[in-house]
Description:
By secondary structure, the protein is α/β, with parallel strands linked by helices. It is 32% helix and 23% strand. It has two domains: 3-102, NIF3 (NGG1p interacting factor 3)-like (Udp-n-acetylmuramoylalanyl-d-glutamate--2,6- Diaminopimelate Ligase, Chain: A, domain 1); 105-228, NIF3 (NGG1p interacting factor 3)-like (Udp-n-acetylmuramoylalanyl-d-glutamate--2,6- Diaminopimelate Ligase, Chain: A, domain 1, 3-Layer(aba) Sandwich). The longest helix is centred in the C-terminal third of the chain and has 13 residues, at 234-246.
Amino acid sequence: MRLSQVIDVLEALYPPETAEDWDAVGLVCGDPDQEVRRVLLAVDPLAAVVQEAVEWDADLIVTHHPLLLRGVHGVAATTPKGRTVHRLITNATSLYTAHTNADVANPGVSDALARAVGLTGELRPLAPSRADPRRGLGRVGELPEPVTLREFTARAAAGLPATAGGVRAAGDPDRRVATVAVCGGAGDALLDDARRAGADVYLTADLRHHPATEFAELQGPALVDAAHWATEWPWLADAERHLHAGATGKLETRVSTVVTDPWRLHDEGDK
């Protein structure tokens, strides 16, 4: 397939016009006429991911997070991002990003997260899009049968890739959990949406101390906090399946298992 054809498939799944105004999605680096045989999918366009792509001889990297989210005035190889751009071009490796347009897609990032932590039934957006209520941020659904918060936290940890920070929970460990709200990535902006949705627990990433403690005092849903990278990684396999389904030619794909979560150590100290 030509790169332009692969992009057509991706943009049918994750329309660029549904991305936030501040976002930077789409083709970052590459020639639309380039032939694509191998596609690597990853969360972050970091040096280790580009190294994996080069070693595998990938023609295209599809990432969730943008490489150049903020404006730049140059891509000199003296900077990390500049070195990444140079390495991509030198190895004829294209880079494409689907970020907030993948967050609000149906199915999107939070659908994959919901399935990874055990939700099996129908899902609905936690914060529906005004333009299309079938799309939106986050998802709400039901577990096959109620479990305790302790059990759900263990299930989430088992369903997500391991990171140094692990998975932590706020709330009564024996609390009954049946209705679950999730949001891949940083989701504390949707705390009130989770409460209004009647969720027993809200799973997301990057929860900050003050919003979390204040929310807990409202006696709303319990909170489960996982690593940002870990909550978005399940989407890669989902995007891979849909890419194959829409492909008009032969593609070889791989989901990167490189852990790009920035935290590497976790020490609970002396007990």
